[in-house]
Amino acid sequence: ASMACSSSFITVVLTENVGLNAASVPATTDFACVVGGAGATISSVTVLSGGSTNNYISLYLAAPVASGQVVTLAYTQPASNAIMDLAGNKLASFGATSVTNLTPATAGATY
Questions:
Q1: Which strand (E) or helix (H) includes residue 42?
Q2: pLDDT digits 0-9 by tens, 62-78
């Protein structure tokens, strides 16, 4: 899996060649996001299934990420509504993992 963020969302791209079950959406509290050393609130989670490719988990943050901030994401597999593929295999829990921050630097004011 790879993870990247830009502004107010984090995208987790799963590289396995199986579709995700888009109906099984975990709670926002199943994730722990840290931005710039402080806990970040996740406001929603969306699971997008593209069949055998293009499987994404999108997490929307309550506050945007600034350019250069260090971002990590962890996931704890819940008892119900876990992220899973179409065969019913659940995504394992993972600890704090680095997220590539793609938020562009804000341009300075022009006078």
A1: strand 42-48
A2: 999 999 999 999 999 99
